[in-house]
Structures are given as C-alpha cells and as structure tokens.
Amino acid sequence: MRCLLLNELGKPEDLIFTTLPNPKAGTGELVVDMHAAAVNFPDILSIAGKYQLKPDLPFVPGREGAGIVSEVGADVTRFKPGDRVMVQTNFGAFAEKAIAKEHETYLIPDYIDLNQAAAIGVAFQTAWFALTDRAQVRKGETVMVTGASGSVGLAAVQLAHTWGCRVLAGLTTHSKAGIAREAGADLVVDLSSNNPKEEIRRRVMELTNGDGVDIVIDIVGGEVFSGALRCLKFRGRMVVVGFTSGVIAEMKTNYVLIKNISVTGIDRTYYRDYLPEWMDEAQTQIFDYIRDERISMPIQEIFPIKDFLSAFDIIRNRKVEGKVILKIKDE
Are 38 and 114 in contact (CB under 8 A)? Predict the structure, then answer.
C-alpha cells in the first residue's frame, strides 16, 4: 500500500510518500481501504513528537478518515467487507489501507459521501462532549468559542446554535467572520490584541452588555485562555479543548474560587475508548443532524495525498476555515 511514513520526528516535510506491505486485521480489527483522510492540528503535534499519544517510529500519521471495509478480523460483529465506514484511529489514516478497531469505526449513512464522512468525526464528537458532558450546556445560555473558524470551533458553534444558545465566535483573523456567522454565530469577538487578558474581557462585556458568558469552549490556549476566563459569569464553565496558539495557559486557582467557576478539559479519545456506547449514540445523533441539514462541516480544500504539504500548510499557517482533506483514492 502507498502511505505517508514518518521515520524521524520533526516536521511534515519529514514525511515520505512510500510503499509498505498491506496490513492484516487482527482480533477485533478491520482493514479499511481509505478513500479520504482529514488533516488535523494534532497530526502536526504527533509528527513533532509533542502530542500526548506517541506511537513508536516509524509510523503512518492520520487520525480520521473514511473508506470501504476490505477485511474483518476475528470477533468483529458489527461490520463486514464492503461497508462504507468512518474511522477515528490514533494514527495510520494517511494510507491506502488503515487498521481500525471495531469501536473506532462507524457505519456511514447513504446520504453522506466519503469526503464529508472523513471531515465530521473528530470535530463534531469533540464539540458534542465538550458542550454536553463537560459544560452541561442548556438552552438559552451564552457560549463563546475561541478559534471558531477551525473544524472543532465550527462544530461547537453549530451545535450550540442548534441547541438554542447565543453564540459568540472568537477569532484572531477578522476575515474569517463570515464562515463563523454562517455556522450560526450571533456575534464575533476579535481575539487579536497586544493585551488579550484585558482586551478580550472588555470586548466580550461590551457585546453582552456587561453580562459575560456562561460557557467558553477554548481551542486556542495561551493568553486567549486567560482573557476568555475573565469573561465567565458566576457559575460559568470553561472547557479546554486545545492549544492551537502553541502555548499552554496557566491560571491562578483563587480566581476560580472567587468567581465560582469551573475549568475542565476534553479529550474525545477517552470517550471513544472507555464509553464506546455513548460515543456511538452521539455519532448517530450527529449523523441525524446532518441528514436534517442542521449541521455540516465545510470542506475547505481537498488535496491528492502526494500534495500533503499543501494541506499541512493551511493548518500550520492558521488559514483554516473548515476541514482540509487528503484524497487517497477515488470513490
């Protein structure tokens, strides 16, 4: 099979397009003929050796994609060869054939094509559990999403809007405001500032008539986290999703005490691995929302797998407005 292989930790430029033997399905596993795979910010971290999950070298990166089941291993009961599936693995999606465990695999409804299926899994699953489980979102609340033009941000904006919330989209690039509004954002907050800790709070308070927000879904981290934290109302909830700024924020816990707020985090892989039935239920509802045209994931660009650097450039240059896809095989 052809794939993108990493022999040494570093940058996307260190990936090589090469050929490896076809994988075989082990117990509880499937082999999927991949048609499309999404490129995500954690892929860059994995390539650099900075992500929390560190596979042994050499390895094939790629966390999500879609294709056709070609082989099933022993004890697999929910899938068969020929099924159209979406997979979310820890690595291995940037290849013509990927290994996935049964609980990492989801049957794709007929109304969703393989490119769209490759784009929706990680983003909407992350946003779903960030809002429902970690933030305990309720209809009528005000939700701010930082990094709102990326795939997880757009998913969070859409879901919060669908559930009857007032949504503020936090952006560091104002030109991306259009896609955030199309996703359902009621207001746009400019996160760019020389003093984000003070300026973000001031801007949010102006937009909310001094009320602040009930929930922050923070994808950016760094000083944006510090500014967004100060926007929370009494009993507000902050959910840490990521650190696209490259800076992990720190906070003084007395502020959490004084304002009676909570700060939690979300890593969807734990829901996938430890609560697979709950994840299946959530993904079924996500598919239903897509069918009913309540949510969708805009695909910004589709690149042939050989042009993988162009895909990574969009991510690392912070030009993301939706999902970036590698086309591995024609449908």
Answer: no
DSSP 228-255: HHTTEEEEEEEEE---TTS------HHH
Q: How far apart are CA 221 and CA 218, in angstroms?
A: 6
pLDDT of 197 strictly over 90 = no
* Beta pairing partners, 64: 38, 88
Other residues' Cβ atoms within 10 Å of the Cβ of residue 270: 11
What is the share, in percent, of the chain residues with pLDDT greater than 70? 99
- What tens digit of pLDDT does each residue of 49-64 get? 988 888 999 999 999 9
**E strands, 219-312, in order:** 232-240, 262-265, 299-304
130 exposure class (CB count in 10 Å sphere: 0-12, 13-18, 19+): buried
Domains (range + CATH), the chain: 2-108+298-327 (3.90.180.10), 122-268 (3.90.180.10)
pLDDT in tens, 291-321: 999 999 999 999 999 999 999 999 999 888 9
Helix (H) or strand (E) holding 190: strand 187-190
> Lowest-confidence range among 19-28, 114-123, 191-200, 256-265?
191-200
